[in-house]
Amino acid sequence: MDLDQYIRFVMALLFVIALIVAVAWLMRRIGLGGVATGAVRHRRLSVVEVMALDAKRRLVLVRKDDREHLILLSNAGDQVVESTPAQDFHAALHDHHAAEDHDAATRPDGAHKDDHKGTSAP
Question: Quick count: other Cβ atoms within 10 Å of Cβ 91?
């Protein structure tokens, strides 16, 4: 083999490695990368759901033992938005919506508390 063939071999190998790294970075950037599912076992920590708000912010619902934590991830810093017991999360969401519906039904004008657009105070 000539020196020219060795150089082409090394350049092709470096190109393939760079291509693999670029595809892995792109997949992680758009949210397809992460923890690979291996053998099934009881885990204390899991990501329940991820929602991209925009290019720089995400909401992540994380379950640890019997608690669920809603975390806002951004470039400015991470923040815990809400933390509730895992079994009560859907019940708390249902109760919140029921309370809003009750408030809207008991208002004398029948308007929802957020429906103040276009109205002026007397």
Answer: 11
Q: What is the Cα–Cα distance from 72 to 51, expressed in whole angstroms?
A: 10
Q: Is residue 49 part of a domain?
A: no
Q: Convert the pLDDT of each residue in 18-38 to its tens digit.
A: 999 999 988 888 877 655 555
Q: What is the pLDDT of residue 66?
A: 83
**Sign of the CA dihedral with 34 first, then 51, 82, and 90 last:** negative
Report the predicted TM-score, pTM, of the whole model to 2 decimal places.
Answer: 0.41
Which two three-digit tokens encode residue 95?
């109760």
Supply the range of the domain harboring residue 6: 1-31
Q: Is residue 86 part of a domain?
A: no
DSSP 8-state symbol, 44: S
The amino acid present at 68, given as its one-letter code, is: E
Q: How many domains, in total, are found in the chain? A: 1
